[in-house]
Specification:
- This protein is of the alpha/beta class.
- The protein has two domains: about 475 residues, Alkaline Phosphatase, subunit A (3-Layer(aba) Sandwich); about 190 residues, no CATH class.
- It contains 21 helices and 20 strands.
- A ten-stranded mixed beta sheet has the order 9-8-7-4-10-1-11-12-2-13, with helices on both faces. The chain has a four-stranded antiparallel beta sheet with strand order 17-18-19-20, with helices on one face.
- Helix 17 runs antiparallel to helix 19, helix 19 packs across helix 20 and helix 20 runs antiparallel to helix 21.
- The radius of gyration is 30 Å and the shape is elongated.
- It starts with a helix and ends with a helix.
- About 5% of the residues have low confidence.
Length: about 750
């Protein structure tokens, strides 16, 4: 009897340890690879034409997830990825620039990682792991700017090379949008300067290998978090990668979107009867000229080259680990922070485009066809080819549609027993931290860490699914809620309740079966009212539990970013305005006092004042300088530049397109007329009147309508415009005095 009991116990123990195929005798090394803005069908395992042999190898050596979801934008996604906690409870419900100022003082809306969450890096480091971060962090900014205590070196990472902003140039250390005046990199908690031969994907892998190699001999496991800039704009790639895809996209974006749909159908990633919606606002490829098509085709070739280059450098890391004998005990997790980015930052109106063009030039960027993707080049994909990366899904980054939330995810490596397996089980970004901790044999502290209260994880470990012991980790009735800028979703089983705001969404609730209808084309709300009601109730419970605040009905991300940009702008304009007031106020006071003191004094009224003498002496030089300053910046817009029209896409009416060159010509002529008026007295008054009205409008536009990406670029022109307006007011005041003096003389 004793012998039978002993054998049974021994057998149970053996079965238990044989089932834990992901966790080896020594805790595994873990490499977490995060792409940026990578679309669902941008890699070969997910139906892409882009060559990604190393990512394909990862898929062949592990489990590929086809129903994995993340947040629809970067910061919330990264917060959940690092903690296993809902983005609101982690303190990062949205990117900081989209959080309304009146909400920013709420605990769940700080825009940076809360002290109430513990990162996976912290827990792994406590357990004896080396922890490394190479790449974009984007969890250390609030509405007020960068917070030094939120560097990754303060959140559990032993060695770091981290980009703090939301992005940066891939060839040089310089900003990529006006909103961020710098590209701030930190190495091990201290500011650093990038090398001359920097290319983001190469450099991040170089540093990852350097960190791993430095500690290799101590035989401790490592956690390496590699956060690529690829394929966030500006889209840039070495020429040799771009050339591989030249001509591949000459058929246009509509055809590519269809080809990728057919590819994922053929591979069985989506059902064979999957349909997809048309992408709103995408131009018809056939409406473009041959030259425009050529330019757009090369842009997509650069995008493909950037994905290809990222894959190549992932392969370098894999090769290094094999050469050093570490590969066999390494687990890889590959995914993206959110869906494809198809917002066109250039499509903000001609005036803003002019300012952006000037900013690009001043920062060494160009839009030249010949060097697209190379050092100094600037590419933003826009909605057209960008929509192909989201195929076959609806919506994109920032929205709760599948195109914004469903992304690739692969768990792979020799410790993963299942090979070449595809799972369509629903999984969520909060599952990554529990999975990593489970693989490492590390327990989460629950609700208390080092004497302080912390948030428990809400995600589930995917280890049972990866091992093949379970087909899904979420039960049919389990729910997962999501909110981002008023775009809402709740997942339950195969179903998704979703509501997207404008300008693309209709702000109405819809119910979809995202397993049979991943394109979200058939709304089941009327067919399944009971399920709809249950899921709506569950969503309401999610918002209450996680402190989700209700946004105004007219809220959009773009309005919010504008509002926050205005706060930042107004602070900077305050100094300029204060100086202007200090200059004007004494003159106004003196003028009023003089008028009161000399009321009815004919001699005073007929006297030429100092101000009048100053205006008379400076008027012509002022007109010449103002005209030249007006002409100089727009000279660049008059030079024919291949592809400028399709990049800016400033369509005003169906038959005609107002290009950046047209705007440049008009402003150039205004500047020329201003110079001429200095020598043509009859033109002075209309030119000054036009200048005062136009520049007053520009100052008001700066304050009221500056878009987030361009707000910094308005400050210098607005200051110049304000000076011009003040000068014009003095000019009109002098004209008024002259008329009064002439009237007095006539009466005498």
């Amino acid at each position: 009897m004793m012998s039978l009991c002993f054998r049974a116990i021994l057998l149970a123990v053996l079965l238990l340890f044989s089932s834990l195929s992901v966790v080896s005798a020594k805790p595994p090394n873990i490499v977490l690879i995060l792409a940026d803005d990578l679309g669902f069908t941008d890699t070969q395992p997910y139906g892409s034409e882009i060559q990604t042999p190393n990512i394909s190898r990862l898929a062949d050596e592990g489990v590929m997830f086809t129903n994995y979801h993340t947040a629809a934008t970067c910061s919330p996604s990264r917060a959940m990825l690092m903690t296993g906690v809902d983005s609101h409870r982690a303190g990062v419900p949205d990117i900081p620039v989209s959080i309304l100022p009146e909400m920013a003082d709420k605990e769940n809306y700080q825009g940076v990682l809360s002290d109430k969450v513990v990162t996976v890096a912290t827990l792994l480091r406590d357990a004896g792991y080396h922890t490394y971060l190479t790449g974009k962090w984007h969890l250390g900014y609030s509405l007020e700017g960068q917070l030094p205590d939120q560097l990754p070196s303060k959140r559990g990472f032993e060695r770091t090379i981290a980009l703090m902003e939301s992005g940066g140039d891939n060839w040089e250390q310089k900003p990529y949008v006006i909103a961020y005046p710098d590209a701030t990199w930190y190495e091990d908690g201290k500011p650093t300067v990038l090398p001359e031969d920097f290319y983001s994907s190469k450099y991040l892998i170089d540093k990852a290998i350097e960190f791993i190699e430095f500690n290799r001999e101590d035989n401790k496991p490592f956690f390496s978090y590699i956060s690529f800039q690829a394929v966030h704009f500006p889209v840039q790639a070495p020429r040799e990668y771009t050339e591989k895809y030249m001509g591949r996209y000459d058929m246009g974006w509509q055809e590519l979107r269809k080809q990728r749909l057919q590819s994922v159908k053929k591979m069985g990633i989506v059902p064979g009867d999957t349909r997809m919606v048309e992408t709103p606002a995408a131009l018809d490829w056939n409406s473009l000229s041959a030259e425009q098509q050529r330019y757009q085709s090369k842009k997509m070739a650069v995008y493909a080259g950037m994905v290809d280059a990222m894959d190549y450098h992932i392969g370098r890391l894999m090769a290094y680990l094999k050469e050093t004998g570490q590969y066999d005990n390494t687990v890889f997790i590959f995914t993206s922070d959110n869906g494809t980015q198809i917002t066109d930052i250039f499509d903000r109106g001609a005036l803003l485009a002019l300012y952006l063009r000037l900013w690009l030039r001043n920062n060494g960027y160009n839009l030249d066809y010949e060097t697209l993707g190379e050092r100094g080049s600037y590419i933003n994909m826009g909605i057209s080819f960008g929509s192909s990366a989201a195929s076959p899904f609806a919506f994109h980054k920032f929205y709760a549609g599948e195109g914004g939330m469903r992304v690739p995810m692969i768990i792979s490596g020799p410790p993963v027993q299942q090979k070449g397996v595809r799972s369509n089980a629903f999984t969520f970004v909060t599952d990554i931290t529990p999975t990593i901790l489970d693989m490492a044999g590390v327990a989460h502290p629950g609700t208390s860490y080092q004497g302080r209260k912390v948030e428990p994880m809400i995600g589930k470990s995917l280890v049972p699914l990866v091992e093949g012991r379970q087909e899904r980790v979420y039960a049919e009735d389990d729910t997962v809620g999501f909110e981002l800028g008023g775009n809402l979703a709740l997942f339950r089983g195969d179903y998704k309740l979703v509501k997207n705001r404008g300008p693309i969404g209709d702000n109405q609730w819809h119910l979809f079966n995202i397993v049979t209808d991943p394109g979200e084309t058939e709304d089941l709300r009327e067919k399944m009212p009971e399920l709809f009601t249950e899921m709506k109730t569950a969503y309401d419970e999610y918002t209450e539990k996680n402190g989700v605040l209700e946004l105004p009905d007219d809220y959009t991300m773009f309005k919010a970013t504008t509002a926050n940009a205005l706060r930042k702008t107004l602070k900077k304009i305050t100094l300029v305005a204060a100086i202007a007031v200090l200059l004007i106020l004494p003159l106004v006071v003196l003028n009023i006092r003089s008028r009161l003191r000399h009321r009815g004094d004919i001699e005073y009224l007929t006297r030429v004042t100092v101000m009048e003498k100053v205006i008379d002496k400076t008027l012509r030089p002022f007109l010449v300088i103002t005209g030249l300053i007006t002409m100089a910046p727009v000279m660049m817009t008059l030079a024919p530049e291949t592809g400028a029209m399709e990049v800016f896409q400033l369509k005003l009416v169906s038959e005609y397109t107002l290009t950046i060159q047209h705007w440049g010509l008009m402003i150039f002529l205004v500047g020329l007329l201003t110079v001429v008026s200095a020598f043509k007295t009859s033109l002075i008054f209309p030119v000054m009147l036009y200048s005062a009205l136009q520049k007053s409008g520009l100052v008001i536009l700066t304050v009221l309508n500056a878009q987030h990406h361009y707000v910094e670029g308005f400050l210098l022109p607005a200051g110049f415009d304000m000076i011009c307006v003040i000068y014009a007011l003095f000019y009109f005041h002098i004209l008024r005095r002259k008329r009064k003096r002439d009237n007095v003389r006539m009466k005498k």
